[in-house]
């Protein structure tokens, strides 16, 4: 044996300690090397090659896996699928009733889809390819769709004319307005039926309004049953919340009670309004957009970028956190543990993981950069262990089994785009092509989306089409019908997974389920094979 002298303890710990326990390998290493190359670093390097940890001349970190590379292992179970609890945390302060978010894409999420998804228990993110005013208005539409108690209802004064009330109705889309004094004392209410057949529109509202003596009023925090009973007795559809001095505190409508009964699983805030998120960029000029969204009542802000582990994104998060300490902020996208930790240190409430897995994303091909999604999620979750910051798996999900795998890898919920594109509630018109119905679907890195305003997500400032370098494509997907049917199938598949793996909750699935790695033959065996499909299944579609 040739004796190798190490100059300090650091070298011993770095190079000698890992190999001293394996004398056979150590001798092989020495034999393979010319005598003048017996350096500690060289010995350790060849030792790692011998074990297959690294390949010569390449800086390969490790092997990475995606959805089709793995399957979950069935386990003893006392869990029935219909008893599985699908609730999960989006952030420490926001709980979802199903682990699904809709992507902030201009062919996926605007107010209609965000409303439909929130009613099913998830949460939608309004895209930013629109003016600040319109994006804020989309947020307001979601928040006001099911208001529970409207904490700040639109009001009129006793001197407001009936003509002005009609104008307000056209602008706001509803016809009931409490009438209050300058001191916010409730004096009556004006509704659509009060003005329907009036010819003199210059009269003040006091001429036809229902006076306060005949109003249905309730105290703040009144039980739902009591409120409904009072509304039924007076045959009215609105009840006004007042304090002891008859100051207006809010308004309750029977329509909101009915909506709550139809959708008991809806994702709502403390006031009974549907929850909604919105996306903003990291570049200069987004301060005004953030301010407008916060003023509109957004529940969670997504600071969205194709590369969340960049200083511009981190600085935007730090600045937003400093200005709005209590705002729920999601940062992304990243694909490494280091990126997830950087976002956590900057002040995010949740981390979004995924670089290039989406069906319409070409980032991995155009740039050569990315990490397969199962490994990316697992690495982020491992890095964030103990911080209490959830991970969102964004992209690459085609089947309900992929949702289950993403959660088993550690994600608290998933974000989907292509799965919801083509639904009735997604933006855009239905197109007919060769006898079938389609809707458009494009990546936010496509030329069309980037020229409309998403180029800063990819750190490109010139919106001219001939100057942009796209990282996505534009296409179409088959029309899929109502969103609630998609959610039913996907959550049904997730429930079945939880039954098979013995996981009663999403947290159980995140921490207890085990994977096996499969071969190409394994994935071929898993899919439909050796048969011609004659009738499409609602939860199994290959291609578009």
Write up this protein:
With 544 residues, this protein is an alpha/beta fold. It folds into three domains: 42 residues, no CATH class; 334 residues, Alpha-Beta Barrel (TIM Barrel); 111 residues, Roll (CBS-domain), CATH 3.10.580. 35% of the residues lie in helices and 16% in strands. The chain has 19 helices and 22 strands. The strands form six sheets. Strands 4-5-13-14-15-16-17-18 form an eight-stranded parallel barrel, surrounded by seven helices. It has a four-stranded mixed β-sheet with strand order 6-12-11-10. Strands 7-8-9 form a three-stranded antiparallel β-sheet. A hairpin with a 5-residue loop joins strand 7 and strand 8. Helix 4 packs parallel to helix 5. The longest helix is centred in the C-terminal third of the chain and has 19 residues. The protein is elongated and about 95 Å long.
Largest sheet: 8 strands, parallel, barrel
Mean pLDDT: 87
Count of helices?
19
Strand numbers in spatial order across the main sheet: 4-5-13-14-15-16-17-18
Assign the CATH architecture of the largest domain.
Alpha-Beta Barrel
Low-confidence stretches: none
Strand content: 15-25%
Instruction: Indicate the CATH topology of the largest domain.
Output: TIM Barrel
State the CATH superfamily name of the largest domain: Aldolase class I
Compute the number of strand runs. Answer: 22
**Would you state the CATH class of the largest domain?**
Alpha Beta
Structural class: alpha/beta
User: Termini distance?
Assistant: 65 Å
Q: Give me the Rg, rounded.
A: 29 Å
Please state the overall shape, judged from the principal axes of the Cα atoms.
elongated
Percent helix range: 25-40%
> What does the oligomeric state look like here?
single chain
Query: How many distinct domains?
Result: 3
């Amino acid at each position: 044996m040739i004796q190798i002298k190490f100059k300090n303890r650091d070298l011993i710990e770095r190079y000698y300690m890992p190999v001293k326990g394996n004398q056979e390998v150590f001798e092989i290493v020495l034999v393979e090397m010319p005598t003048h190359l017996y350096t500690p670093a060289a010995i350790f390097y060849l030792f790692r090659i011998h074990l297959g940890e690294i390949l010569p001349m390449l800086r390969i970190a490790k092997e990475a896996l995606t959805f089709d590379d793995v399957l979950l292992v069935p386990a003893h179970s006392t869990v029935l699928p219909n008893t599985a609890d699908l609730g999960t945390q989006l952030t420490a302060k926001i709980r979802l009733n199903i682990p699904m978010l809709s992507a902030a894409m201009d062919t996926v999420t605007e107010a209609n889809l965000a409303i439909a998804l929130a009613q099913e228990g998830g949460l939608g993110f309004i895209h930013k390819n629109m003016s600040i005013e319109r994006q804020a208005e989309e947020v307001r539409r979601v928040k006001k769709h099911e208001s529970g108690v409207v904490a700040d209802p639109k009001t009129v004064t006793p001197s407001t004319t009936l003509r002005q009330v009609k104008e307000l109705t056209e602008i706001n889309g509803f016809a009931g307005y409490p009438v209050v004094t300058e001191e916010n004392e409730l004096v009556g209410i004006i509704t659509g039926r009060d003005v329907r057949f009036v010819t003199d529109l210059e009269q003040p509202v006091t001429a036809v309004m229902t006076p306060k003596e005949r109003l249905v009023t309730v105290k703040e925090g009144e039980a739902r049953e009591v409120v409904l009973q009072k509304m039924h007795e007076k045959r009215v559809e609105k009840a006004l919340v007042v304090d002891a001095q008859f100051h207006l505190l809010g308004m309750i409508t029977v329509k909101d009670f009915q909506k709550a009964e139809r959708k008991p699983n809806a994702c709502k805030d403390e006031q009974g309004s549907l929850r909604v998120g919105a996306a903003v960029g990291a570049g200069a000029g987004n301060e005004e957009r953030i301010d407008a969204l916060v003023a509109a009542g957004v529940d969670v802000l997504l600071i969205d970028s194709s590369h969340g582990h960049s200083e511009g994104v981190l600085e935007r998060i730090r600045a937003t956190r400093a200005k709005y300490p209590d705002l729920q902020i999601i940062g992304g996208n990243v694909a490494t543990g280091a990126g997830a930790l950087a976002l956590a240190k900057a002040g995010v409430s949740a981390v979004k993981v995924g670089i290039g897995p989406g069906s319409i994303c070409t980032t991995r091909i155009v740039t050569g950069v990315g990490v397969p999604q199962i490994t990316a999620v697992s690495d982020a979750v491992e890095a964030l262990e103990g911080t209490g910051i959830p991970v969102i798996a964004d992209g690459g999900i085609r089947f309900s089994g992929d949702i289950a795998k993403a959660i088993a890898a550690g994600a608290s919920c998933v974000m989907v785009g292509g799965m919801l594109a083509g639904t009735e509630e997604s933006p855009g018109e239905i197109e007919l092509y060769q006898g079938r119905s389609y809707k458009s679907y494009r990546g936010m890195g496509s030329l069309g989306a980037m020229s409309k305003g998403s180029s800063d997500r990819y750190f490109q400032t010139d919106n001219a089409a001939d100057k942009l370098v796209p990282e996505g494509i534009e296409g179409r997907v088959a029309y899929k019908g109502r969103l609630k049917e998609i959610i039913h199938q996907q959550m049904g598949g997730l429930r079945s997974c939880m039954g098979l793996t013995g996981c009663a909750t999403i947290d159980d699935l995140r921490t207890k389920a085990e994977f096996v790695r499969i071969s190409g033959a394994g994935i071929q065996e898993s899919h439909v094979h050796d048969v011609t499909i004659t009738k499409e299944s609602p939860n199994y579609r290959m291609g578009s």
